[in-house]
Amino acid sequence: MYIVSEVCLDTVRAAVFHLKDRQWERQGNAYCQVGIYHAPSLDMYRVVAWAHDGSFINSRILPQQAIHCYNGYFYTWADSRIHYGIMIPNEDIGAAFEAAFNQVLNTLRAAPQRRRPRTRAHLLPEAE
After folding, report:
1. What are the distances in angstroms from CA 18 to CA 26, 55, 90?
2. What DSSP line would sit under 7-24, residue for residue?
3. Which H or E run includes 36?
4. What are the φ/ψ torsions at residue 99 (nearest 5 degrees)?
5. What is the pTM of this model?
6. Cα(8)–Cα(121) distance, rounded to whole angstroms?
7. Strand order of the sheet with strand 83-87?
8. Residue 31, C-beta contacts closer than 8 angstroms, at least 6 positions apart
9. Which residues of the chain have a pLDDT value below 70?
10. Which of 24, 44, 87, 88 has the most other CB atoms within 10 Å of its CB?
């Protein structure tokens, strides 16, 4: 069994949105916990949003991404599959979340890029 431990770098309560057909669609009815997590053993960062009625974001943060802020409350970014938006009702908390996201991006961009295996086959014992 391969266990990955993660460290939470920042967490906020926010409304979560996905961009579909050029429209922002709210995911769920309640505010979610949105966190930035780091898995040191994999040198990987991700954003996760969850609520009692299901998970709405599980997005890996990559060096080529960017986070954008609109009107001081709405933050957006995209991975290879989905454009995400979160509305944080407090401007100062939103700015802190954006700063944490940008710090992750700066860390990733400053690190030497190494090729990671696409599968976990390297973790399996070799056949004889």
Report:
1. 7, 13, 20
2. EEEEEEEEEEEEEETTEE
3. strand 23-39
4. -65, -40
5. 0.82
6. 27
7. 54-61, 44-51, 23-39, 7-20, 83-87, 74-78, 68-70
8. 13, 14, 15, 51
9. 1-3, 113-128
10. 88
